[in-house]
Amino acid sequence: MQQMSDRSRPHILALANQKGGVGKTTTAINLAAGLAELGKRVLLVDIDPQGNSSTGLGIRPDRRTKTSYDLIVDGADLQDVVIDTGLADVLIIPANADLSSADLDIMANQKRSFLLHDALRRPEMDGFRLDYILIDCPPALSLLTINALVACDSVLVPLQCEFFALEGLSQLMLTIRDVRRSANPDLRIEGVVLTMHDRRNRLTAQVEADARANMGELVMKTTIPRNVRISEAPSHALPVLTYDPTSKGAEAYRALALEVAERRKTPAVSEA
Hints:
Blueprint: E1 11-15, H1 24-37, E2 42-46, H2 52-56, H3 68-74, H4 78-81, E3 83-84, E4 90-93, H5 102-106, H6 115-119, E5 132-136, H7 143-151, E6 154-160, H8 169-182, E7 188-197, H9 202-215, E8 219-225, H10 228-232, H11 240-243, H12 248-263
Parallel strand pairs: 1-5, 1-6, 2-4, 2-5, 6-7, 7-8
Antiparallel strand pairs: 3-4
């Protein structure tokens, strides 16, 4: 199958953490919106069977006639699965519960770990004129997550500021190392972004200090605050940047988008 040249293709960024409830989907939605505000054209690929990125951007179930399941499992045409979100320069490949069986459905396929990689590098992708592809992974180290890690250029890891936050990170880092060795040698960690950050809370300060001591510059400068507007926005099917553009949550995600965009212009951060 013919593929896009590396020079022309968008940067592919996976948002991954096998722990649920860390702000992964919220970050995927709002990072997409923030990058779009910077003039970037973004495709969000929802591969979480819960489909929360799709719901959070207002994609009703009746619009999800073709989803990321069809793309990964059946090789559906990109034109059939990419839909407009209504936000300027933000497109989505939606998800639904069909993805719950995807791991089993692709297990017998010899290219089972490369299905998303190949789909996102088809020549037809050129027609969407993308700058970024963001992949919202399921909260598990499943075959779907492996597909995302094989497909992407880098991984952004949302990390909740809570007591056991760093403990769950080690398994993800080992998985990333395994994928590097076996399938994607150029895979790198874009960064770790601290979410649900509360400056008044002593535990938050301790988690942040531990994360920065252990991972150094891999931890993004931007932190995402615990903010009621961020929590309310999904119920209105909007990113917080649209729902309340002047809120602290919106300002934080704008800063994160700028930091991610700036990292494209500078050498990779060392993961040593």
